[in-house]
Design brief:
The complex is a heterodimer of chains A (320) and B (364). Chain A is an alpha/beta fold and 320 residues long. Chain A is built from 11 helices and 13 strands. Chain A folds into 2 domains: 211 residues, P-loop containing nucleotide triphosphate hydrolases (Rossmann fold); 65 residues, Alpha-Beta Plaits. Chain A is 32% helix and 26% strand. In chain A, the strands form 3 sheets. In chain A, strands 5-6-7-3-8-9 form a 6-stranded mixed sheet, sandwiched between helices. Chain A is elongated and about 75 Å long. The two termini of chain A are 37 Å apart. Chain B has 364 residues and is α/β, with parallel strands linked by helices. Chain B is 65% helix and 9% strand. Chain B contains 15 helices and 5 strands. Chain B has a 5-stranded mixed sheet, with helices on both faces. In chain B, strand 1, helix 3 and strand 2 form a beta-alpha-beta unit. The radius of gyration of chain B is 26 Å and the shape is elongated. Chain B starts with a helix and ends with a helix. The chains are: A alpha/beta (320), B alpha/beta (364). At the A-B interface, helix 2 and helix 3 of A face helix 1 and helix 9 of B.
Chain lengths: 320, 364
Amino acid sequence: MPTPATSPAVTGTGATGDVIVVRDLRKHFGPVLAVNGVDFVVHTGEIFGLLGPNGAGKTTTIEMLEGLQRADGGELRVLGLDPGRQASQLKARIGVQLQTASLYPQLTVAEILALFGSFYPRALPVKQLLDALDLDEKKDARSKTLSGGQQQRLSVALAMVNDPELVFLDEPTTGLDPAARRALWDLIAGMRQQGKTVLMTTHYMEEAEILCDRLAIMDHGKLLDMGTVTELVGRRFKERAVRFDTIDRLTDAKLSGLAAVSRVAREGPETVLYTPDVPATIGALLSATEALSVEPSNLMVRRATLEDVFLDLTGRALRD
Amino acid sequence: MRSLISLTIANVRSFVRDRAALFWTILFPVIFIVLFGVIFSGGGSGYNLGIADQDNTPTSQGLVAAFTADGPLKPTAGTADDLLASMKLGKVDAVLVIPKGFEAAFGAGAGSTAPPLQLPLYVDPSNASSAAAITQVASAIEAGFEQHLDHVRPVAAIQTTDVQGGQLSASAFFVPSILAMALMQLGIFSAIPLVEQREKKILKRLSATPLPRWALVGSNIVLRLIIAAAQTIIILAVGSQLFQVRVTGNPLVIAGFIVVGAMAFTALGYVIASFAPTEESANFIVSAVQFPMMFLSGIFFPLQGLPDWLHTVASFLPLTYLGDALRQTMVGGVPFATLQFDALVLGGWLIVCLLISARYFRWT
């Protein structure tokens, strides 16, 4: 544990530059363990992602860090504060975007931003937020008339009203079309450029790969692995994946006997061969198919992705 | 404090922009007043005058016939006691008594020096303009009747008597009742936006800010009080313009009951919001609470003739006491000292509801 900063000049991020320190965090709802012994650390200025399917415990974890839910066990430090006991101090310094929270439907965008600004000792000017989130032309529109993408931008704007050091984003791009999603990605990347720390949850692999400096993969209330995308993939997959449409006569036994193949997997209609030596494996595969007088269709080679990491860790695919 | 003010402004804006809320809190009570006014005052023209003929002679019957003949007064015959009782129920607007000796007074002749015989006319002081109108018309008819008998010297004179307390005309009865109903609805309907804000996670989003919870609850109460003030002004304006209802009570006592009543029902709204899991169930509970309360609290019709157990139920309902207090103080001019029990019951409901919601209200 880093010792909490004692100097008033230090803003409480601790000596090691860790904004969030979580040790053996636990939370149960009745008999269900929603969060079961989670450990991680978020460094100053990074975008840290919690990746996992719905129901993995991501939202519960993030809400304990925000001071919205009480932890049942373990240690928590956010900006050097205890979210359980110092929630009001903490809330003034963090920005929060909640999953699927809607806003006052009858108020306009500018009114909602000014309202939330009034809750903080210090707030950014409404105009600046409207410009930053490209909501200026919607400032006088009631929030109920906004599109899904605009509502999501507004809820991200609300997470920035107090110019926070640390921003929590819970599934920020869920339900958005690809263009709106990309616009929001730019915005989140911009937060990092301003020196803010971001903790976000997502169940989109692509989003995690593009945005997050480091990731923790979560399922059933536990962290399964943690690191950069390269680390997560490299640690597990030295080899690449050769994929093609499954050919029934090529049994698992036959396939695993092919040159350099380390593992055979079936994904839907596809067969995946993992290999450290792609040319040798493809050569052997083509000989095998030629002997059967068939041609492998949709043959392709790719590096393993987070999707493969997740599949490897949990035995199932992330639902998109 | 700054957050309390900005949140209150946000609440007022949200409320004013929500047409349905405006309809139920402002327009609906006004429609009720007009509807009840038309039903109770029989088209709104003319007054019901009870006449108790205690003389029961040809001359006194002649006077009764003069009242019956024409004009804006609609006479009803009966004994003085019965008629005064119906006046309390708002069935008649005033009661005229023709005392024994009426005919004899006419027989006394021109040489008599006796003072004119007094005919008591009981009027409702809280309904000043109709009291004045009834007095004028009744005096004119009586004078005309004497002239008809060719008497030079006035034999009898109408003497108005204000009977203090409880002489509620129909309109004076239902205007405070509708105000009580409106305050009740205003308060318990606050459950619905609360549950909506919880379901839509607005409350959760607010609790992720440094906004203190007292400011959140406080702004809701301030909003309800602002609406209560608006309802009071509109209901009293409509009541006085259309039905000449005059407020005679102490404005401070009236305002005090309105504030305590609105807060007690708002606290009841929080209790409902504490136990309603969804907006739909909140709607259902609000209806299940408000309709029986409206009909059992005696605000629209007296509870006579109902079984005892319903009386017992009524004696626990806060609306019974708010309706009683507003009626008594607004049009009866009854001082606060006699309304302490009403105040006590309403205050009790407020405190109990606050305790229950402090214990069970969930923000997320």
